Structure formats: C-alpha cells, structure tokens
Amino acid sequence: VENLQPRTELQEALEDEKNVSEKSFEDLPEISDHVESRDQRPSSEKEPSLRDYQMEVAKPALEGKNIIICLPTGTGKTRVAVYIAKDHLDKKRKARECGKVIVLVNKVPLVEQHLENEFGPYMKHSYRTIGLSGASQLKFSFPELIRDYDVIICTAKILENALEKVYEDDEERVQLSVFSLMIIDECHHTQKEAVYNNIMRYYLK
Known about the structure:
Rossmann fold
C-alpha cells in the first residue's frame, strides 16, 4: 500500500494493538464448539473508528470492490475488517436488503479472539454475531445458523465442508451466494490445495 501516513502514526497503532496482536495462542482459553458473542460491555455499542492509513486501505472495499489489505503486524487489520463489515451491513439494512457476512480464519483460537476482541464489541448490539469452531458443524445446523445470524466467524474448514455437500444433495449444504460479504483472515494462505484456495474455487464458479 502506497502513500501511508508517517511512521509515527503506525508506531502509535502498533502500541495500541500490542496486547491483542502479541497474545499467544497458548494464552487463549480453549474454544468451545459453539461460541456466541457475550455481553461483557456496556449496552451502548461503540462505533469502530479508523486511523487515516486504515481508512486509506479500507476505501476500495467501502466502495464495494474486492481488495487485499496488506499492513504490518499490529496495525489493526482486523479493526479495518470490522469497520468494512459494519459499513456493509448498515448499507444493506438501509436499502432493505439482506446482508450476511462470513469471516474465515485458518486457526481455531482466532475464532474467539476475533469475536471477543473485535467483532463482538463493535457489532453484537446491532447485528447477531456468532463464532463457530471445533465440532460445531456436527452439533448445529450450519444452514440454520446462517439464517439466524448476520455475522458468522468460523474456521474455513467448516464452510468448505458445507460447500462440498452441495454436490451430495445433503440438507446441510450451503451455497456461497448466501453471503453478501466474505472476509478471509491471513489470506496469504490461499495457495495450492489449502482450504482457502478450495473455497475460492467455489467463488469463481
């Protein structure tokens, strides 16, 4: 990304995000099969705000374009994703259209981390938000959860399994077109036969 703000602002952001970005997976609590956003904050929902350099990289997505966000570790890429997701759903609601966001992660601990630290605090009072991981797809109907929730944060494998069932005429099948916005965390893992790449093949069909 070119023409970013001076390094001092990036350093500020690095300091702000330090506690979240440097938290090791070992320090995170074990993820349950079905994690729902818990109300641990005041009832008044905070509005996500972006620094200038974050808004710069978010702008194309806010205009409805497909983008890849490339920023240094700890500069708030997840916060940018939250801002984009909320803006997307707000616009859909205003237009009286159905909006549905899926956030894909490649590691189980990221489900709760993103839910509790980012998407939950900024979105759970306006939109139904849920995190799925582990054996969730065996205990809950994924299509039903998609119908019931506005924002779904899940491991990519859960979505891949649901997409594969389309060709098996399984009642748990899911069409990718049901989502109006897809956010892929750690998208540099989209390569070869990795799960992200398999999902993108469905997107391109």
